[in-house]
Amino acid sequence: MNINRALICGNTTRDPEVKTIPSGQNVATFSVATNRTWTNKSGQKQEEVDFHNIVAWGRLAEIVGQYLKKGQIVFVEGRIHTRSWEDQSGNKKYRTEIIAEKVQLGPRSGMARNESAEERSTEIHEEVEPSKTEEEINVDEIPF
Questions:
Q1: 8 CB-near residues (< 8 Å, 6+ apart)
Q2: How far apart are CA 95 and CA 102, in angstroms?
Q3: pLDDT tens across 33-72, in order?
């Protein structure tokens, strides 16, 4: 059994860019920054930032384009995908992305302080059909 699942929570680095591809399907791209903080051996605080490229398709792309803005806290659940292509010079290029299947927006600024986190967040969920090439999992074959 294989698992390809990504869960990240961070801040958007730019507004989503929504395009319609020739087939008529919408695609949104945006980026999320996540921070990691630790103390090194000498006791100094260290910080590292990672940037994640996110791609949303279909209705989820439309919704993300409508509600998600730069600097907003967002939780993204999806799968990791690396695509490759050749540039104009014939060099092979790679880009690793998270294909979003579920997006949850964090608290919006200007909301009342007495609202719970659940009331201040908005969940965006678009069911993604499994690829027709994937085998169906038989529960009796799972070894545990």
A1: 32, 34, 52, 75, 76, 98
A2: 21
A3: 999 999 999 999 999 999 999 999 999 999 999 999 999 9
How far apart CA 5 and CA 118 sit, in angstroms, is 24
For CA atoms 106, 112, 117, 122, the dihedral sign is negative
26: helix, coil or strand?
A: strand
Closest CA to 56 of 24, 83, 17: 17
Q: What is the pLDDT of residues 4-13, one digit of tens each?
A: 999 999 999 9
For the chain, list the domains and their CATH numbers.
6-37+47-128 (2.40.50.140)
The alpha-carbon radius of gyration of the chain (Å, integer) is 19
Of residues 33, 32, 100, the one with CA closest to residue 61? 100
Q: How many other CB atoms sit within 10 Å of the CB of residue 32?
A: 25
Rounded Cα distance between 49 and 47, Å, is 7
